[in-house]
Amino acid sequence: MKITHLFLLHHLFLFVQAKKSFYILFSDQIDQSTFPSKICQNAGKGPQGTECVDGTKYDVFITSPQNITKAHLTKVRKLVPNTRVVAYWDFNHMPLKPANPLVCPFCKGHTMGDRLGRNCSTTYSCSDPKYNPFVKELNAIFPSELAIRMMHPSNNSYTLIEGYPGLASYMWTEKTTSILHKFLTSWIKNLGFDGIYLDGYGRQTFDKDTGYDYDGDGISETFAQVTSLYNGWAPAFVSMLRNSLGQDALILANSGDANTDTSLSGLTIELEGCTKAKGGAKSCGNALSGQNVAVTASGRESLSVLWLTHSNSMSPIEQCAFAKQMQTNYPFVQEGTDFFDGSHIVCNESSTISN
Description:
This protein has a single domain, classed as TIM Barrel (Alpha-Beta Barrel). The protein has 355 residues and is an alpha/beta fold. The protein has helices at 2-17, 27-31, 70-79, 133-141, 174-191, 223-245, 280-297, 316-329; strands at 20-25, 39-40, 52-53, 58-63, 84-90, 93-94, 149-152, 157-160, 162-164, 167-169, 195-199, 250-254, 266-270, 304-308, 333-338. The strands form four sheets. It has an eight-stranded parallel beta barrel. It has a three-stranded antiparallel sheet with strand order 6-10-9, with no helix packed on it. The chain has eight helices and 15 strands.
């Protein structure tokens, strides 16, 4: 009896561990008749449209807020029972589209930007901000002068800074923290998301002056002042989110490194950040373990993710074996499919071979 019981528990544990996280789900993929058994890049269109994965294998979906409705979230939860749908937010760049195109020549208002090979024609379907409720509302409540900008005193004008192709850079300040906390909290609650994914939230040190205005006062800040702004207000924003969304909300940070924060549920790390050159399993293990202790001490669920991607830095077989070992050492860690990246890796059931 005891041996049989332990055998069943062991297999139950493996079943639970088999659950994975998915990045990033779009509304048009949910609209497809093949969802969730077959999720394809750009909903099956374009040069990457034949790249598909089985969505029933996942229990956490990082989801783009572009054109998402309550009906979409209901469909995901109905067809993939016990799953959680988490809203995506870029912690450093945003899809602005100012009324004056001279303020931001590169801004098209596309939710995920316009990076070559990862844009509207290859990877996701874009829509003009006026047809995209999330981006339309964001542009209505976020003044472009609060984004990071280069001032032009000679003609009393400014231009925004492109931190990611097609997206404007912004800084966490007292004003932006207040505006974005209110906006994102309202959006998440109204649609019924299970939490939020903060892409790029981590500790930062700025080491050179750029001459940019970071806080909307029209005066350039020094690198020391920018470091103080970010590390002062970014954690404050996350704490405010936790307070507003509640203790059960799943709040994840794609930090890429150690970023222990008691307001988070966990960290996500892309596996190229766990190569030997970057400290290997020891460095990644410390980052994940430290965050786990902090969350557990707060009495909340601990969940972190290792994104399997960029096989040029670590081979697929190595990544699958690494993820399996890390999950053995840290049961709160999930294997993640970075589908949007275009270099995703999906391990088989034994986590030793990639597809």
